[in-house]
Design goal:
This protein is an alpha/beta fold. Helices cover 24% and strands 35% of the residues. It has helices at residues 29-39, 43-58, 95-104, 106-113, 132-136, 144-150, 152-158, 169-177, 410-417, 423-439, 444-458, and strands spanning 21-22, 80-81, 116-121, 124-130, 140-143, 182-186, 196-201, 208-209, 212-217, 222-230, 238-248, 253-260, 266-276, 281-288, 293-296, 299-302, 308-317, 322-331, 337-346, 351-360, 368-377, 383-392, 398-406.
Length: 463
């Protein structure tokens, strides 16, 4: 098996594996019990896991979408712990783990422009820090395992209610084997002005990472949550299967930004769902640059009058990659509004697919939704597909869908060349203009890095 296309993937390094505890290959009810025992979980969580495992054994992976036939679930390690406990100082991490985060740049980012950081390495969060001012305001930002023990009443009220184990194959698997992830609770009226960030790193070969994230924004609050993802390049495949549940209460606003830069040997199967109550705003900003396969369709359930949902997504599919991404907007209440803007780039034989699902219930009067899907194909071997689904049972709904597929035109390249730009510079300028509607919504420090990564990926693709 050849290595994935990795000429410009700077995060593909690995450090020696460090293991405190781990399970063997494959998943079974005994492995599920072992994970729960290692974590010291209450009985109700073990029961949740075992029921989810039963659903997982009875279900099958989807037959639609990308080809998952090469994914061997019995050849994966489902839990590996690399430290005894999370620390609050980077200096307290084991040297090899600290080196990883230093090379990625997370400590520097925390110092410069973040309100809190959670860093997950393999199955467990190894570092957590939150500004003292947020703690004084009552903001809770911790790993999900800690939340199960310290805030059980809140967790039990919300955990698995938006994305139950029965929802799909990946949610059943995650619910059985979940570990790590983030728990965020923003009190009523509190606005967190700087982003909170979680960083997920897979270092091992043939490994499965199954983080679980739960965010609750109480009435009138605001939070911006960022997540980043990387992994080394190996000859064998690994699996990342996450579940995210977000509750946006009356008049609250949540923005969830993902900059995914997995290596080309990762299967990335993710379920993300939010519920927006009256006058609430939920915004997904989703950037997918890496992985062998991505299947991810963040959803907003617009459950309260005047709620708004938005999805801005960017996918870049290179050699050996299939980025199957999209969004779902479910309008259940009157006067709700949603917008989807999707940008995809396919190069070197890569494939990008967009799946949009917009539904408007019968009593959801006065609603509107628009979907714009733009695809850029850079060579004859690449491919892009669009699968829109629009369903309305309300007579006055306003729905709009627009899709375009284009190549970088020779006339545009010629025009820019006549102004003194090289073909590579001209192509880069056109690509940056194409993705600008999404990139401009990301904090400046991240958008600069994202543009740099995209420009590296595009080297040699145009001109």
């Amino acid at each position: 098996m050849d290595f994935p296309d990795s000429d410009h993937y700077k995060y593909g390094f690995s450090v020696p594996e460090r293991t405190v505890k781990e399970t063997g290959l494959g998943l079974s009810s005994s492995v599920v019990r072992q994970i729960s025992e290692i974590k010291g979980e209450p009985a109700w969580m073990l029961d949740f896991r075992l029921k989810a495992y039963g659903l997982f054994t009875e279900s099958s992976q989807p037959k639609w979408g990308p080809d998952l036939s090469a994914l061997d679930y019995d050849a994966i390690t489902y839990y590996r712990k690399s430290t005894e406990a999370a620390v609050k100082s980077w200096d307290d991490l084991p040297p090899e783990i600290r080196e990883t985060y230093d090379r990625i740049g997370v400590p520097e980012a925390e110092k410069d422009f973040l309100a809190g950081v959670s860093a997950q390495y393999e199955s467990e969060v190894v570092y957590e820090s939150v500004q003292k001012e947020l703690t004084r305001q009552g903001v809770i930002f911790c790993d999900m395992d800690t939340a199960v023990k310290k805030y059980p009443e809140i967790v039990r009220e919300y955990f698995g209610t938006l994305v139950p184990p029965s929802d799909n194959f990946s949610s059943a698997l995650n619910s059985a084997a979940w570990s790590g992830g983030s728990f965020v609770h923003i009190p009523k009226g509190v606005k967190v002005t700087l982003p909170l960030q979680a960083y997920f790193r897979i270092n091992s070969e043939s490994f499965g990472q199954f983080e679980r994230t739960l965010i609750i924004a109480e009435e009138g609050s605001f939070v911006h949550y960022l997540e980043g993802c990387t992994a080394p390049i190996y000859r064998t495949d690994s699996l990342h299967s996450a579940v995210v549940e977000i509750f946006v209460k009356k008049g609250a606003r949540v923005r969830y930004t993902t900059v995914q830069n997995w290596s080309g040997n990762i299967y990335n199967l993710v379920t993300k769902r939010a519920k927006a109550e009256e006058d609430a705003v939920m915004e997904w900003v989703d950037c997918n640059l890496g992985s062998k396969v991505t299947m991810k369709y963040p959803a907003v359930i617009l459950a309260g009058r005047g709620a708004r949902g938005e999805m801005l997504s960017l996918a870049l599919a290179g050699k050996g990659q299939h980025q199957d991404t999209g969004a779902r907007m479910i309008h259940l209440a009157p006067d709700t509004h949603s917008r989807i803007i999707s940008k995809s780039i396919s190069k070197n034989g890569g494939r990008s697919s967009f799946r949009g699902d917009i539904r408007i219930a019968k009593n959801a009067t006065g609603c509107s939704s628009s979907s714009v899907c733009d695809a850029l194909i850079l060579d004859k071997d690449s491919r892009s597909d669009t699968y829109p689904s629009l369903s309305s049972h309300a007579s006055d709904a306003r729905l709009a869908h627009e899709a375009t597929v284009e190549k970088i035109g020779e006339e545009k390249l010629f025009y820019l060349a006549s102004r003194g730009l090289s073909p590579q510079e001209a192509g880069g300028l056109l690509v940056n203009g194409f993705i600008e509607p999404v990139v401009k919504e990301i904090p400046m420090e991240y958008s600069i890095e994202l543009n740099r990564l995209i420009n590296l990926e595009m080297e040699g693709s145009v001109g």
